[in-house]
Design goal:
This protein is α+β, with helices and mostly antiparallel strands. About 35% of the residues lie in helices and about 25% in strands.
Length: about 230
């Protein structure tokens, strides 16, 4: 890891309070790995032997229901930690981490988690903030599933994605990573047919542009109205 500069981590919250020498220690103890799109970094139920930092790319966090159906619980963007089973007191990963596009990660063995927490100022507090925000997001998703109509849930999911990972393009705000209608159906607890029908209608109305594995939101205010909230 000698070829990675300390500046790589200085703006990432769990490491931003650290001195360069401490960041150097962290980089020297890390293992880098590149993953192709559509592969698992780890799977639900596996022993949580490492925790990860996503340097580049996007991760889908997938849970499997007792009936065997897959549900996309979260998306993780670059610059975030994941595989945080030790922060949850878990010995196994509670979900599968699947790459949405090509990803570059750093990882460390879980056995040195207590050392990170004790030695590096701000690591623990910032990590638990991350865990808390993800729990809040999943709680919001559960409320949406229980109280909202399908159209509202799909609109909420698209808004959440452009807020978290959107990039401005000529026509509007594009979801930065490849996403399919099947992915959206797995996020919102509905069928592929329903998602396709809704996205086609919204494209016809000029609210979005939906292409092959790409979605651009042209009129975010219209999506806000579709959630039932006020723009």
């Amino acid at each position: 890891m000698k070829n990675l500069d300390e500046s790589l981590l200085t703006d990432i919250p769990p490491f931003r309070k650290l001195q360069n020498a401490q960041i150097r220690e962290i980089l020297d103890s890390a293992i880098p790995k590149r993953f192709d799109a559509g592969v698992s970094v780890f799977e639900e139920g596996m022993d949580a032997d490492r925790f990860y930092l996503l340097l580049d790319g996007h991760i889908r966090v997938i849970r499997t229901t007792p009936e065997g159906e897959q549900v996309i619980a979260l998306y993780i963007a670059s610059g975030q930690l994941f595989g945080l089973a030790p922060a949850l007191g878990r010995k196994q990963y509670p979900a599968t981490a699947m790459t949405a596009d090509e990803c570059l990660t750093l990882s460390w063995p879980t056995r040195i988690w207590p050392e990170f927490v004790a030695k590096y100022d701000g690591f623990a507090t910032e990590t638990y903030k991350i865990v808390g925000s993800r729990v809040d997001e999943m709680h919001s998703r559960i409320v949406e599933m229980a109280t909202q109509h399908v159209e509202q849930r799909v609109a909420c999911s698209l808004l959440r994605l452009i807020n978290q990972t959107g990039k401005k393009v000529a026509k509007g705000v594009e979801i930065e990573f490849p996403i399919t209608r099947q992915n959206i159906s797995e996020m919102t607890g509905t069928t592929l047919h329903t998602v396709s029908r809704l996205l086609s209608a919204w494209q016809k109305a000029g609210i979005i542009v939906s292409g092959r594995r790409k979605i651009t939101v042209i009129k975010p205010d219209e999506l806000v109205l579709l959630t039932g909230a006020k723009a």
